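== Folding the chain ==

***
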Amino acid sequence: MIGHRGSPRTAPENTLASFRQAARDGATWVEFDVSLTSDGRAVIFHDDDLDRTSDGTGPLAATPFDALRNLDAGGWFSPSFAGEPIPTLEEALELFRELGLSFNMEIKPDRGREVETAEVALAIARDCWPSDLPAPLISSFSRASVATAKEVQPGWPRGLLFDRVTEDWKDVGAQLDVISFGANHQHLTAETIRTMHEAGYGVMAYTVNDTERARTLKNWGVDGIFTDIPAAMLKAFT
């Protein structure tokens, strides 16, 4: 079970507050998205635009880091989180070390920056993450980003993400040397999971917030789920 952007039903997603809440909820893994500002700083943010989860407007990729640091990424969720900043990748990794959290870093590039985003994020993660701790899982919907991760940090496991699994999954999995595929749980079937397992790959399902669906996926043999409700999901499986 992996806390999807932390614990986003109880704290603003992709913030340090959300990751702390996920740890309090009992999660041992969290997933987050890393993107680049206009001046190439790696920050934790999901959307292309700032509007939904901050008091900023416009594209993240067109915003310099200094302007981003003045934004409120928590007040939209609740007044109690007002002033919560958009974290840098360095800040998130430092927190994970403190909390003992493992992580899945999803590379979320702006169009045309697939290689750059992966290079910047992997360089920071390599420098900040101690070699004596479990290696993170690096994933992306972008095949170019996963290929870059393979090149610059080959020892870390990689995953390729889909909405619907494409017909060439086996070929691209071999090409990118991934260990797992992640897919929208609504499009996963028992047969898909079985076939991927037979080919030697793990299967991850996102974003699962219904405990009955989670039990079905578990019975089908899925290797992990991403959820917005880690506390409730853990309770359902204990």
